[in-house]
Amino acid sequence: MAAAGHPEWRVRMAAARALGRIGAAAEIPALVELLKDPVWWVRYHAAQAVTGLKGMTPEELQVVRDTARDHFALDMLAHALAELPLRKRKLWA
Questions:
Q1: How far is Cα 14 from Cα 16, in angstroms, rounded to an integer?
Q2: Domains along the chain with CATH numbers
Q3: What's the rounded Cα separation, in Å, for the pair 69 and 17?
Q4: What's the pLDDT score for residue 75?
Q5: Which DSSP symbol is given to 93?
Q6: I need a surface site. Which of 16, 21, 23, 30 has the fewest CB within 10 A?
Q7: Could you give the residue ranges of the DSSP H alpha helices within 1-93?
């Protein structure tokens, strides 16, 4: 969690990826903050993490999207949500 606020963008990106792999709903506030990051790669991995959290329902994803008022966050979440069916197909193939 502390890595999510690190000054180096690569560390923040790694934090987003790690939170997505091992995290749960409790990490959503940290991931929403990472969705607002000025670096595209950090936002991308944060959005991938949010949409890939185990147990996240479409309704919960919509709440995250509704509360992420930042335009960068909204764009990246829309991108990740559009990719979601493709990612699931790759996992199940």
A1: 5
A2: 2-92 (1.25.10.10)
A3: 22
A4: 85
A5: -
A6: 21
A7: 9-22, 28-35, 40-52, 58-67, 71-92
The residue written with tokens 């995250």 in the block is: 64
Q: Is the pLDDT of residue 24 over 50?
A: yes
CB atoms within 10 A of CB 80: 22
Q: Is 91 exposed, middle or buried (0-12, 13-18, 19+ CB in 10 A)?
A: exposed
- pTM score, two decimals? 0.78
The gap between the terminal CA atoms of the chain, to the nearest Å, is: 33
Greatest mean pLDDT range, 22-31, 35-44, 62-71, 73-82: 35-44
Percent of residues in the chain assigned helix, strand, coil, to nearest 5: 80, 0, 20
Q: Is the pLDDT of residue 87 over 80?
A: no
Q: Would you tell me how many other CB atoms lie within 10 Å of the CB of residue 89?
A: 9
